[in-house]
Write a structure and sequence with these properties.
Largest sheet: 4 strands, antiparallel
Order of helices and strands: HEEEEHEHEEEEE
Protein name: C-type lectin domain-containing protein
Helix content: 10-25%
Pfam families: Lectin_C (PF00059)
Structural class: alpha+beta
Oligomer: single chain
Radius of gyration: 20 Å
Number of helices: 3
Strand content: 25-35%
CATH architecture of the largest domain: Roll
InterPro entries: AntifreezeII, C-type_lectin-like, C-type_lectin-like/link_sf, C-type_lectin/snaclec_domain, CTDL_fold
Number of strands: 10
Strand order of the largest sheet: 3-4-10-5
CATH class of the largest domain: Alpha Beta
Keywords: Signal
Number of domains: 2
Amino acid sequence: MKLLIVSALLCAVMALTSAIDLEDEEGSSGTEELLLTGEDHVVKTPRRCPVGWKMYCKRCFLYVSQALSWAQAQKNCEQMKANLASVHSYREHKFIRKLIFRATRQCKPTWLGGSDAKANYIWTWIDGTNFRYTNWCHGKPSNNYGHCLEMNFSAKKCWNGVFCSCLRPSVCVKKIW
C-alpha cells in the first residue's frame, strides 16, 4: 500500500513539475524551493514573480507609470521590497526597454537605479552592485554632481544623467529567492 501511495505521489510531482516548467518569454525559468510536507517526502514548488512583475534572469521587474522624482521612485520600489533597477548586460537593457514599450507603446525616459549622488562622476547602483554595463549617450554623463540615471533619452534611447528632482516613470527590480 505504501508503495502505491509513493508511486502516486511521485507521478503527481512529475506531472506538476512538467506543467510548471514553462519558461518565460526570455528563456529563463523560475527557481524552485523545497516545500517540506512533514512526511517522508519533499515537493518542489516554483518561485515566480508577483502578479504584474516580469522575470528576467531570476529577477522580477515592474514598470511603474507614475511620474516621480528619483528618490520618490526608489521609496516606492522599497515599499514593494524592491529597488530601482540596475542593469548588468545589453540583453537585460533590451528586456527593460521592451517592458517599458509594452506598458506604454512608447520609449519614455524612465528612471533606473543609478546615480552619482555619493561622489561626482562616480556612478553607483542603488542596490550596491557594480556598474559593469553602460549605455550612455554620446558625451554623457556630463561631469555634474547629483544626477540620476534615466534610460530612453533622446532619439538614440540611451542613458543620461539628469537632475534627480525631475519627474519620470520608473522600473523596479527584486530578486526571487
